[in-house]
Amino acid sequence: NEEKKSIKLKGKTMGTYWQVKIPYVPNQLHIKNLIQRKLDEDEKLLSSWKKNSLVSKFNKLKKNQLLAIDKKFFKIISIALKINKKTYGKLDITIGNLINIWGFGNQKKPHNYPSINKIKQVMALTGMKHLSLISNANKHYIKKNIDGMKINLSTLGEGFAADHLSSVLKKEGIENYTISIGGTVLVKIKNKENSKIIAIQKPTDKIQSIHLLIHLKNKSISTAGTYRNYYYLKGKKISHLIDPKTGMPVTHNLISVSVISSTALEADGWDSALLILGFKKAKILALRENLAVCLITKKNNTFSTWISPCFKKFLINT
Ligand SMILES: Cc1cc2nc3c(=O)[nH]c(=O)nc-3n(C[C@H](O)[C@H](O)[C@H](O)COP(=O)(O)OP(=O)(O)OC[C@H]3O[C@@H](n4cnc5c(N)ncnc54)[C@H](O)[C@@H]3O)c2cc1C
Ligand SMILES: [Mg+2]
Questions:
Q1: 247/113 Cα distance (integer angstroms)
Q2: Over the stretch 45-74, which tens digit does the pLDDT of each residue have?
Q3: CATH number at residue 94
């Protein structure tokens, strides 16, 4: 019977795909269009690829000019500042120029390694200390104190959008849903119903297979990996995750990090930052911050998995 069936809505956003599962509703097309419209709105705020986005406007500002932002934009930047501090600077949204020269922003992938000089030159335009949020009489502003600095919110945008969609669906009276955008998943379930089973994929681009299963209810999970978004340059793998301290893409053997959190924004922020930190530091930080984290490392073609105490309760033993 139709009432029991769930429906899957799908589309494209932010250079990736979105999918929303909800219980049957007669006005599917209305919900689908609403979701796409809200995602388009978020893209207009956050995209480095759209010339007129708020991010692009900020990127064109001269130093010390103020740009008015709303509460939602204030929130995403605040989370970026918070995670930046806690991860010793590994999450750094001011590395827009660095992301561009490595070919993961709005510039083409390079055919040659960027020179040390080029990397140094571009790194001089980075650093969260050059970015500030200002609040005055309920109005919010953002500014930079060096010319040429560019922000890139790719590491937080999908989580931000998933939280946003969650509040949109709630307003529509939908109580059970699973939202996926890129590597971020948000599960919302009405109290009396069971949790939802989510798979963490094996960290390989060859075949899609399940590495482990978790159950999730009213939480988000986000996975960052160096195993999918990469290209080869002179025979070397170039990952999309860049260490802001060296200006270089990461090459260590921590290849997948999943983080469970109460908001998709936080999960999406932490996963990439922990991955860039590397196994030892990520593990220490996960324990200290009580994060629900799954770390997968690869050595001689075998995977090892470490799960933090907070992650254990989500695990389904198979
Ligand atoms: C609003 C928006 C619009 C987009 N539009 C396009 C588009 O038009 N075309 C397109 O090809 N892609 C676009 N993307 C980007 C694309 O979809 C990314 O691959 C995706 O956002 C990365 O998410 P992830 O979950 O794979 O990786 P995550 O691990 O969540 O984030 C990794 C990304 O963050 C950035 N990053 C790398 N190192 C750091 C660091 N140290 N600190 C902070 N950030 C870092 C890099 O861009 C990297 O790809 C867009 C992203 C957003 C948010
Ligand atoms: Mg992320």
A1: 12
A2: 999 999 999 999 999 999 999 999 999 999
A3: 1.10.3980.10
